[in-house]
Amino acid sequence: MRVEGPLPVVQLVETTFLTLVNYASLVATNAARYRIAAGNNIKLFEFGLRRAQGPDGGLSASKYAYMGGFDATSNVLAGKLYNIPVSGTHAHAYVTSFSSLSDLSVRKIKKADDHTIEVDLVDRALEYRTQVAELLHILLEESNDGELAAFVSFAIAFPQGFIALIDTYDVLRSGLLNFCAVALALVEVGYQAKGIRIDSGDLAYLSVRARETFHKIAELYKLPWFANMSIIASNDINEETIISLHEQGHKIDCFGIGTHLVTCQRQPALGCVYKMVEVNGNPRIKLSQDVEKITMPGKKEIYRLYGTDGYALIDLLQRSCEPPPKVGTKVLCRHPFQESKRAYVSPAKVESLYNIYWKDGKICHPQPSLAEVRDHVQKSLTTLRQDIKRNLNPTPYKVSVSDELYSFIHELWLQNAPIGELF
What we know:
Helix content is 39%, strand content 17%. The protein is an alpha/beta fold. The strands form five sheets. A six-stranded parallel β-sheet has the order 2-1-8-7-6-5. Strands 14-13-18-12-11-15 form a six-stranded mixed β-sheet. The chain has a two-stranded antiparallel ribbon with strand order 3-4. Helix 2 packs parallel to helix 10 and helix 6 (121-136) crosses helix 8 (171-188).
C-alpha cells in the first residue's frame, strides 16, 4: 500500500490503516489456509463469534473469513450486514431441554404440497425408529426419547433446513438413529433433511459410520439423495486436524471452525507497519540494528513476475523512475540486504500490483463486492506453487528489489549511518 499526501494527514491515518489491514489480512490469510487444507470440495462454516475478541472482532472475523474462502457463517448479524450465507445448527442445550416426547407441545406438521393435511410427525418418527434400529442392529431402549423430541420439534420449525446435532448422548446408539427416524418421517410430508453435525468423539470413524448408515437407508427406502446428506464436523478443529482427518479417510462434507480461525492461534497478530519513505521528493530511510526493520527508501512500484507454467515466481520492488519489467526480458532480482542472494528472471507475464483507489478526494475504482473479493483471493491462490502453500515447511515466497533499488538502498544507508571511532 502507498499513501501520498500532506504529512500531518498521512500520519493521522496511520493507526486507522494498520488496524484495518492487520486483522483483515491475518484472518483472511488464516481462512485461506483452512481452505487449502480442506480442499475445494468441502464446505467451511465460520463458527467463531463466541471465541472472538469481542463483538466487533467477531463481526469482522466473519467478514474476513468469508473473504478468505469460507462458505458461510453462524453469525446472523454478519449475514445481514455483509450478505454472507448463514448456516448453523441447534445447540446441545436445545436437545437437553427435552426430557421425553410428552414435552412436545406441537406434534403435527403440514404437508409441503398441501397445507390442509397435517401429519403426526412423532408417530411417523417412532415407527421409522423401530425399523432403522432393526436395520442397524441397535437396541431401541438405548435411544433417547428426549433427543427424539428435540429433533421432531426442530424439524417442525425448520422442515426445509433440518440439520441435527447428534452427539448429545451417543452418536451411534441414539443420535444417528433418532435423526434418521425424523428424516424419514419428513419424507412423507414432502421435505428432505439436510444432514447432521458431530461435535465430539472420533470424527473420522463416526463420519464413516454415519455415511454407511445413510447409504443403507437410501438403498432400503429407495431414496438416493439420503446417501449424500451433509455430515458437518466441529470440535476445536485446526489445520492439522483437517489434514489428519484426510489421512484417515473421513466422510465429512463440511467443517465448522471457530476458535482457531478467528483468534488465529498459530499467529495471533500480524506485524504490518506503516513507514515514511519520502518527503517532498527526498527519500527517507529508517535504520536499525535489526536488519529486517530497515525501511526501503523512496517512491516505488511493485510487479509480480510469472513463469511459463503460470505460477508466480517472485514479486519485484523497484524505483518509480525505473522502466517496468518486460515480458521475455531478463531482469536481475536481488535480496534487499543479502548481497549474494540474487537471480535473473525472464518473466512470461508481468502484473503491476499497484492500483490507484483514491486520488484528489475521489474514488478512482468501484468498490468490489465481498463475493468478488473472495473470488479474487481464490484465483490468486491458484497462482502459487504447492510447495509455497503446504502446511509443513513451506517454501517462502520471494519478494525482491531491482538492482538499481538495491544500490540506492545501500547508498542511502551508508550516507545516514554514523561512522564509529575506535579508541
